[in-house]
């Protein structure tokens, strides 16, 4: 629209930002309708007909997901959140291969945005139960695989002990032993 400022040039950036901030599956993202986005409550409702497990779930939106969708909402006038230019449903996130190539990213599938979300939450200490509910996993065993990421953080935590002990750091544990 002439004279209007658009934050995004197409659906690509907002769809990726929403994906990495919500953990939505690609199919859930591409079937998402504006009626399922509640800006006041800051939630996205995944309806059973759009969910892989055929169960309704409500996902809270963090600040970035909410701001992204608010800006995108001002640009699009279709019932679905992510469509092509004439409002037809998308089957794929267009230009995904091109984006990966330009960003020099290899071996990254769109579904990896979901893995990224789960790993970030686990690494930040979010309870496995909450990650399971957000991702819509029926069984906690599916969510357990993300705990490997936390195990990497354990080694990182112990690596602080490799730093030299000096009087300036106030570390007198060597004297106490």
UniProtKB/TrEMBL annotation:
Keywords: DNA integration, DNA recombination. Pfam families: Phage_integrase. Residues 1-159 form the Tyr recombinase domain. InterPro entries: DNA_brk_join_enz, Integrase-like_cat_sf, Integrase_catalytic, Tyrosine_recombinase_XerCD. It comes from the Bacteria. This is Phage integrase family protein. It comes from Paraburkholderia unamae.
């Amino acid at each position: 629209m002439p004279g209007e400022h658009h934050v995004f040039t197409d659906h690509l950036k907002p769809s990726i930002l929403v994906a990495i901030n919500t953990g939505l599956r690609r199919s859930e993202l591409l079937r998402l309708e504006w009626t399922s986005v509640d800006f006041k409550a800051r939630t996205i409702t995944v309806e059973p007909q759009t969910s892989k497990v055929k169960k309704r779930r409500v996902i809270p939106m963090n600040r970035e997901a909410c701001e992204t969708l608010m800006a995108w909402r001002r640009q699009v006038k279709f019932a679905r959140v992510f469509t092509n230019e004439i409002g037809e449903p998308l089957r794929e996130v267009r230009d995904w291969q091109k984006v990966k190539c330009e960003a020099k990213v290899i071996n990254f599938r769109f579904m990896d945005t979901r893995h990224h979300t789960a790993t970030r939450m686990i690494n930040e200490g979010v309870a496995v139960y909450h990650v399971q509910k957000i991702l819509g996993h029926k069984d906690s065993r599916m969510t357990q695989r993300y705990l490997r990421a936390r195990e990497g953080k354990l080694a990182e935590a112990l690596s602080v002990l490799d730093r030299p002990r000096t009087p300036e750091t106030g570390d007198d544990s060597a004297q106490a032993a």
